[in-house]
Specification:
By secondary structure, the chain is an alpha/beta fold. The chain has one domain (3-225): Alpha-Beta Barrel (TIM Barrel). Helices cover 38% and strands 21% of the residues. It contains nine helices and nine strands. The protein has helices spanning 3-21, 39-47, 58-67, 86-89, 102-115, 141-148, 173-186, 207-212, 222-225, and strands spanning 29-33, 52-55, 74-77, 95-99, 119-126, 136-137, 154-161, 194-200, 217-220. Strands 1, 2, 3, 4, 5, 6, 7, 8 and 9 form a nine-stranded parallel sheet that branches. It starts with a helix and ends with a helix. The model has no long low-confidence stretch (mean pLDDT 96). Bound molecules: pyridoxal-5'-phosphate (PLP). Pyridoxal-5'-phosphate binds at residues 33, 35, 56, 78-79, 162, 203-205, 219-223. The modification N6-(pyridoxal phosphate)lysine is found at residue 35. InterPro entries: Ala_racemase_N (IPR001608), PLP-binding_barrel (IPR029066), PyrdxlP_homeostasis (IPR011078).
Amino acid sequence: MNIKDNILKLLNKVDDVCNEVGVKSESIKIIAVTKNVGIEKIMQAVSCNLRDLGENRVQEFLNKYQTLDNKDVKWHLIGHLQTNKVKYVVGRICLIQSVDSIKLANEINKKAKELGVIQDILIELKTSYEETKFGVDVNHIDEFLNQVADLKNIRIKGLMTIAPKVNFEDEARPYFEIAYNQFEKLKNVRQDNMEIQYLSMGMSGDFKAAIKEGSNMIRIGTAIFGERK
Ligand SMILES: *Cc1c(COP(=O)(O)O)cnc(C)c1O
């Protein structure tokens, strides 16, 4: 298993599907998901120019944050975040992708205000009921936006979603389509703390389907680093 080869293969597949749907492959941001991956392998991915790294556990992120030279990389938090761990990630994580409650948004805002920073976040959208118990229900998005409208130290950059596991990749497309429709709607909402840019969806098993449905940020672990132990 060679990380450089894996990345080249991945980039080729992304190119192919982008050509197929008529979008520029440069418009798709790839997040290298480094959970359970050691520093050496992460460095290999970074040296292949993958500089956006995704972690889903705070403690694991902190260990790596202390070890890696962070001026070279941008960290994304993609896993569920408990409010009591917010203090460890605000200002260190460039994009908190998994904001799934008003309480969490409030806590992030509070910490960001203390530090005098604006924290970029994505709202995690629940597009299915099988895969995850986390995420804001599609029907509650408007209410969510209203409730966080006055939080000046967060900036909502878009949406993240996780599709359920399916047997055939294209079966994930309806879930991605739901997220895309919400993403398009959000672009028309005028709110000071919103700057809609990213639709984060697609993992190793379903990124092609996600790109076909309008994703511009894919989160890839296995296809880069191999199967996790
Ligand atoms: C682990 C993980 C990924 C990457 O999954 P792979 O199938 O290994 O590409 C993407 N997004 C989230 C939220 C994850 O937890």
